[in-house]
Design brief:
The protein has five helices and seven strands. With about 200 residues, it is α/β, with parallel strands linked by helices. It is globular.
């Protein structure tokens, strides 16, 4: 049937899977929620006294909940392109879930906080080891020091082709720019030679 004919079946949009990863309390849940066009799925639980010895809340003392499995959201970037976002849990004890969440992912956002930059090392290492393209997004928290992109890149020893973007995880348009960067970077890198998680 010819395109544009009244009986033509519209093509389904291309659906891509992206991960949103990073350290504990960096803003992953906020980022997914800010941009999702559906009510995001959240698996948050209250922080407890029992978790205090293992949950390092330094720098995020007001944090009261934590993701224990994943966050999920969806955004349509164009009529023919839909992104499914999977936010990973940030604490070490939930990292066993990352391999499952990474299956079939085109790319990832590694969200960073300059006040606790070392907290994103594990996520950077995870995606580098698996050959999954990622964009490093610095969540510019109120009151946090701002650093040039080159300083952040050097501090994390990122490869030159890895995009580094400053963002506000609360702002939809800011998050959309990060997601577009991930898709563009992943498509530029291509999937040849990528290892599975």
């Amino acid at each position: 049937m010819a395109p544009g004919s009244p009986h033509a079946v519209p093509e389904a949009p291309l659906a891509l899977k992206l991960l949103v990863a990073g350290g504990f309390g960096v803003g992953k849940t906020t980022m997914v929620g800010a941009v999702s066009e559906i009510r995001p799925l959240r698996t948050e639980e209250l922080l407890t006294e029992a978790g205090r010895p293992v949950d390092n809340t330094t720098g995020v003392e007001t944090k009261r909940t934590t993701t224990v499995a994943m966050d999920f959201g969806r955004i349509t970037l164009r009529d023919d392109l839909v992104l499914y976002l999977f936010g990973t849990p940030g604490q070490d004890r939930f990292w066993f879930l990352w391999d499952e969440l990474a299956q079939g992912a085109l790319g990832a956002v590694v969200l960073a906080d300059t006040r606790r930059l070392a907290d994103c090392f594990a996520a950077v290492d995870y995606f580098e080891r698996r050959g999954i393209p990622f964009t490093l997004a610095v969540n510019c928290f109120d009151g946090a020091d701002r650093y040039p992109e080159t300083d952040v890149r050097d501090a994390l020893d990122l490869d030159p082709e890895v995009p580094v973007i400053m963002c506000d995880a609360r702002e939809r348009e800011s998050v959309k720019k990060v997601l577009v960067s991930v898709v563009q970077h992943a498509l530029a890198v291509g999937t040849t030679g990528r290892r599975t998680a």
